[in-house]
Predict the structure.
Amino acid sequence: MVAMTLAEIATAADAPLRGNGAVIVTGVATLQKARPDQISFLTNPRYRKFLESTQAAAVILSQADAPACKVPVLVSDKPQVTYARVAALFAPSPVACQGIHPSAWVSDQAQVAKEAWIGPHCTVEAGAVIEAGVFVGPNCVVGENAVLGAHSRLIAQVTLCHGVRLGQRVLVHPGAVIGSDGFGLADADGRWIKVPQLGSVWVGDDVEIGANTTIDRGALEDTVLEEGVKLDNQIQVAHNVHIGAHTAVAGCVGIAGSAHIGRHCTLAGGVGIAGHLEIADHVHITGMSLVTKSIAKPGSYSSGLAVEPSRLWNKISARLRRLDDLARRLVALEAKLSTDRDA
Amino acid sequence: MVAMTLAEIATAADAPLRGNGAVIVTGVATLQKARPDQISFLTNPRYRKFLESTQAAAVILSQADAPACKVPVLVSDKPQVTYARVAALFAPSPVACQGIHPSAWVSDQAQVAKEAWIGPHCTVEAGAVIEAGVFVGPNCVVGENAVLGAHSRLIAQVTLCHGVRLGQRVLVHPGAVIGSDGFGLADADGRWIKVPQLGSVWVGDDVEIGANTTIDRGALEDTVLEEGVKLDNQIQVAHNVHIGAHTAVAGCVGIAGSAHIGRHCTLAGGVGIAGHLEIADHVHITGMSLVTKSIAKPGSYSSGLAVEPSRLWNKISARLRRLDDLARRLVALEAKLSTDRDA
Amino acid sequence: MVAMTLAEIATAADAPLRGNGAVIVTGVATLQKARPDQISFLTNPRYRKFLESTQAAAVILSQADAPACKVPVLVSDKPQVTYARVAALFAPSPVACQGIHPSAWVSDQAQVAKEAWIGPHCTVEAGAVIEAGVFVGPNCVVGENAVLGAHSRLIAQVTLCHGVRLGQRVLVHPGAVIGSDGFGLADADGRWIKVPQLGSVWVGDDVEIGANTTIDRGALEDTVLEEGVKLDNQIQVAHNVHIGAHTAVAGCVGIAGSAHIGRHCTLAGGVGIAGHLEIADHVHITGMSLVTKSIAKPGSYSSGLAVEPSRLWNKISARLRRLDDLARRLVALEAKLSTDRDA
């Protein structure tokens, strides 16, 4: 168990402490649940109501929230970032194993760094390169000539197909598939002919890829995730998609082939992006929206509709089906009224 | 092969039989396909038309449908439930294996009950606890300190991450991932810092989790599925979601972080639930709807739109884009007409 | 490395060549990137602008595009099909392994053809039948009595549940699950009772199934994918769905139970299909649309809405919620105006 004083934590997180720095902290917790030896945080205004009664050793919060807090505070203009740093102090550090588990199968034509770990029941095929500090968890498959950059981690049951290249410190969660064939089909008189998928996938440094997310290999050139891209679970990234650096994509998003997403974008859950379009840097798409055309300007875009009681929604939806008619009738009324006046 | 008389089936299913109880039944089948030694059922009015010509030994149906049936009937006020019970009589019982397959790797610091089965190529890590009657199918991963309650079943290729706890009789289908890291990111001047995911997942008794469904571990506290929750395939449950008892969630649903779903709810396919909201008990959301605010009242809610021919839809959609203008023009007309009258 | 002359390629692809047939080609590439020993193609008008400056040995294109090309051309009325054939000449041929990897576990009651390959860490259970030319990649699970037709390929980490039958030349990508239990539940006074899923899955010849796609087994009869069906990644196919021959389904589509989709249909990304409905042959559904009723006529159908700037969308969406009121007010105005005139 890690134990640190508040003063040590303040120094490590580079955030000024107001209160007794000698207090011992052994972990992090929510405002509601924190014990006097745990540090807490306030990043979402929904939870401000718990500030007054918290038992936490200290609370990480913004300057504005500080006065309302009865216990010591760590003031930060980015409380979420400060919290992430503090929580990391108390998170169990990833196991630093070395070697190859006896139940793994590693081709003698693969290169595995001495300081890497290959877990139980893994398959590592010929030509694969596994650099120092890499952790390959249980039951993963590393295909021919795939490359894992230093300190990358495949948690478990991950599939890297042949030739896929991961940068350094890439983190891949269970069930993710990187480098599956793109969905390339040609219509030959009603029968589909497979278009060979000859490209690969290139994943930059510090990318994170969620559980059961799939990233297809390019048809000719590579599918690319630039450095710092973060993908949540259950995402589909089609062939030849290019995602710019530091873009974050939430769960269940689908990105169709050859879409080019800018840097520092965010795609919320369930968004769909059509193929062969360009999205500028700093574009934010809200939940369950559909993008069918390129977006040239930064900003927030939406097309999701929020629920209403079904009975009301059915009425709205029936009216919507006749919207064209309704608009025409309005035009007719306008014309009529204008004629009446002129008459 | 199981063979039972109609009388035995009626007793086992606790449903009154009208007809000859001595008839031998060896299985279940649809109304259209049933042979004279198979029992059938009518639960969906679409199939009522097949009632007259069915060759089944007997039909499970409601009182109202009974008169239209020429063969023996098992009358039930819940024919779907009665059918489920009868079909279970003829379903192959799950294999009751015991022991550890020689190709599995089980840490000597794991506890595996004598009456449990660990299948081929499984990995069971240190501290894992596997109770009596548990079945771990081929190529599963059970992480450190994970707990599988008695009679739980992982069909194949399932990943339980470290510390995840399953209750009793939990059924998990292939490719499901339970306990992957939540998507917790803090924005540090355009670069994402990972927020450590220190909670776990708690799954109640009699929960069923579909193929390739993913359930993230909590950021601090646990993600919770209460008893009797049923999840279909390809669902994403984010960190700190809480799903109340006996709620059923259909395929491709995404539930964002810290959403709290009530008991006895149903979410139809493709629904999206935003984060940090509360949904009351007995709420039903129809297909592909988006919930962005809390729902306090039981009932049915929708925001999905059904298809029209694309040509018509394109017109509707173009009008929709100008709906604000259209509404303003209506207001203007109303004002004009009112002025004209007053004049 | 494969090397062929342009004349040989033209013959193999059955497309007339205009230019020097003696030129040696060693691969395929995009118009922008092709070197003088690579062949390229023009199938999407977006890339026509690169035609003039391409360095390719030759370009596969339509008659209409031929005059604008400065390098030799292979003319085709289906350039996409011709390209697929040419690219296949240069694609690495799938490894033709034979035998069983020593780390695989194969039941002695399974039948594995001599000319088949079972990769590392695979599990093949009793009664499974694996025909000649089949390739089972690493870490796959083939359940009891499952059948893999000749020359089928499971890339890696695939799960075939018990009794599933694949035709010939079926290609299944990593993480796909075929034959998981359908989501069959009966409501017994607020508790869900499992309806046994006693059917299986039947997959026709030349079907392709994408990464992490799931196909549930039928409740009583089989879930069916007819020959030549192509499924992309992350698709959910529920129990007793029937997909007609040569239908293609893009990523993230969800198809609910007992839906019957015709032949030669296309479902674009993110589409949702409700249960128990019929879709005719040659129906095309555009991205993120929802189908809730049967479709009897061929053609294109839509209900997806494309993004607008969020500020505008919020206005539209607020107006939409009051659309019923707006329509009523229009009717009132019409009545008023008509009365005024009559007066």
Chain C has a mean pLDDT of 95.
